[in-house]
Amino acid sequence: MIKLNNLSKYYYSSGSVATGLRKINLELEKGEFVAITGESGSGKSTLLNVISGMISYEEGELFIHGETTSHYDANDWEEYRRDHIGFVFQSYRLIESYTVEQNVISALLLRGVSYEEAKERTKNYLEQVGLEGYETQKGSQLSSGQKQRLAIARALAKDTEILVADEPTGNLDTENGKNIMKLFSELAKDKLILVVTHDYEEAKPFVTRKIVIHDSELVEDIKLKDRDTERKDFLKTKQKSQRKYLVWNFLRMNLSSQPLRGVFLTLFLLVAGFAGFIFYGNILSNLDDVTAKQYSNTYFYNSSPLRLIVRNREGTALTKDDLAILQTLAHVEGTDLYGLTNDINYFCENGKDYITNYTASTSNDNSMVNSYETNIFLNDFSKFVRTATGLKQEDLLWGELPSKANDIVIYTTDDTKLKETIPYYFHNQRSWQTNSYIKMEMTICGILKKPTNQTYFSEELGQALVMSAWKTGAEPVNYLQILQSQGENNKLYKKATLKDCIIYTDATFDFTGQDIVLSKKTKQSYEECTKAYLTVSYDEGKGELYDISKQMNESSEKMVAVPEKIFEQLAKELAGSSQIGVYLEDYAYTNQVLEEIKRLGYEVISPFRASMRVYDPKKVSERLISLGIAFVSFAILFILEHILLRSLLRLKDEDYLTLRFLGMGRKIPVKIIAGEMFFFTISAFIGASFLIWISSGFIEQISHLIKYYKPAQFFLLFILFLCNIESATFGYGRHLEKKLAVGQKNGGRL
Ligand code: ADP
Ligand code: MG
Fold it and tell me: pTM value?
């Protein structure tokens, strides 16, 4: 069944050529038990390896079942080794991390036996070699005699018609050696058995043929006994192979046999993942070039990076409905219906925010509004108005939300402050002259739960300040008097029953540089009016519509009358505001929240970003450096991970080589490893996420970076890592495939 015809084998290594076999002619048949002897280095192992398709040959021909093998490709050799050859290696070639049982199971799995059946059959093979009871012991824990017997059990498990063994009894005592020889001779009834032995005397009672090799040549070939064979057809019907769970079964065995390796690899990937999270987060946080610019307060006095300004696309007024929508957005800390007030300063801490100059005379300190008080010097312009429109009752620990114009809500740990009255000063840097301010006595009506320095003001004050905010160069007094008068008119929007109304415009108010001309016919002039309703009064006496232009001419006090329909529209808009202030939990969420608000159909800007206008060369280079560091660290981490992973994977080279000798397909190892790595990566990522979550609790830098991650970015990071890990795996796979090109020229080394 095996025929060697003038077969020669040479070993080429670094320029020199060694002869392994020279012109061997040999014919071997089933039923033979052949002992191969010869001194060391004579070529015995080479002969076995050529016959079993482990190595290639250069000259001559090897026939298997009368068929030449010259046309065999890698797959044919693979199939040959898997289905026809059982091999007991001189160096055992056990998978040391596997248990005794798993070593035998591997061979059975590769034959296509199901895992459960393989486990069952293994008992029988272990019994045959006297290893019963050692099933769960690791290969590495066996004595060399036991290893040898396990190697034989594994070869037996393959149940092939050819069994070759390279010095199988070399490490056994006489008794055990004899037993193995006896076992071989029994098996030889329906197999071809080739055994290399250094101790021919031991084999002599059992063998049917003796071959002696000397200096790579066949020098003796004696048939000792007749073959004792029950002839069977060589090509027994092949087992229906069911290797579809092969990858899964090996994956399972690998994971269970070396749990510590799994833990180590997972930990390694976890640490890499965690570092990747930080470096990538640093890249994300530096992408925003705003950090490299200087703030310019030409447009916005309030330089808080947390503030966003939201407007309607059409410029129409926003209402509490809009506020309610914006309040529910993720990462929004608070909202303010009267966003225009957020650039107006307030001063409340005497000696810090403002300084009282007692040498100056105090004028009319009792009035609610006093813009000419001269004994006050405004000092700290860092506090900005926010109204309580975005607050809810549940935000308060004590008290109520503002119901009167001069009600305020603050945070304090001292609840006796409730109902206390404090003087507040307001100043609008945009519209008012330097050191002109209004003063109001404010009453604390509610105390907040969450600590803050911010004072929250009433809606009425907000409205009045909005009106004042429009006005350029005028004193704020007039607008505040709306509040002061406590008249009906400041509750304009409640007057839905009015037939018509009159709008008095302030004589000095002039937004466009012309007198306000309001016509009920043209939209443009109507819009002008919406900017101009400063005081509105209801004149029951004049129950008719005015000719507007005439009215303007006639009256020294400019009055504009509008019909009910327009009035109601005006009223609705007055109830709202032209811009809402939205406050972020953290600047890192800026892009995310901006996008979300745009998606809702609003116009939105970050006044902070809009005001960071000029690049600061020092900050630019700082940003570029940290971006560069983050990027380079990220890249190095990836490369390191890749390299380390490949060298870690290489530790398994020998095991996969062994499995290849047992007949594992070329593509299988990489699939097993890819599966393992996928599992480790997933575990590592879960672990890393958990670690990030935990550490963000007490490491501020991490809790800051987290904010730059959207789910998509987190996912991207995971995919990047998975790709890197799997590319290391497949890179290793290619190396393995080359190394494991067993039986091919320049292929695997034994
Ligand atoms: P034996 O098993 O009889 O001791 P081998 O078949 O191992 O002998 O070796 C036969 C000859 O081939 C020796 O000279 C040995 O040095 C050489 N040889 C064996 N394997 C290799 C190899 N992988 N590379 C180079 N030379 C080898
Ligand atoms: Mg040898």
Answer: 0.67
